[in-house]
Amino acid sequence: MNKSAAAFLLGVVCWGCSGGGDFPVAKTTGTVTCGGQPVPHVLVMFTPVRKGKEAYSGKTGHAYANEQGEFAVSTYGNGDGAVIGNHGVKVDGPSREDHPDFQCDCQLGGGVDVAQVEVTKGGENHFEIVLRKMNDQERRRREQEVAEELEDLE
Prior knowledge:
- The protein is an alpha+beta fold.
- It has a single domain, classed as Immunoglobulin-like, CATH 2.60.40.10.
- It has helices at about 5-15, 135-154, and strands at about 25, 30-35, 35-40, 45-50, 60-65, 70, 80-85, 85-90, 115-120, 125-130.
- The strands form 3 sheets. Strands 2, 3, 6 and 10 form a 4-stranded mixed β-sheet that branches.
- The relative contact order is 0.21.
- Residues about 5-20 have low confidence and may be disordered.
């Protein structure tokens, strides 16, 4: 199973995990870029950061970037936004099945936060998510992963 599918399934499994009830959300939008260029079709995940000893800080919001790399986060409903508070932001590539020609020279996936942001009530909450360029070792590893994914699709 590819990373995008795994992230999607995790989101579906957690969809009903509302802890002590629904957490308030605020409209949250943004753009994903790599080397100043928009990155289309990627999965963007806003995961609330736990505060103190809280066991649960809210539900993860998800979005898919459009052709211009723009996204609008959905947590409980379509485009409703992200939970108010601090978030780690992760970006994962699209499924090879849906976008077999996708290429990006920046770091994607790996379960690593690419940004830390704060979503505020009444705030603009528009974030520019700038991905870091891969080094040679990361690029070789990515090429191997892509080759393995393509073999699995055949």
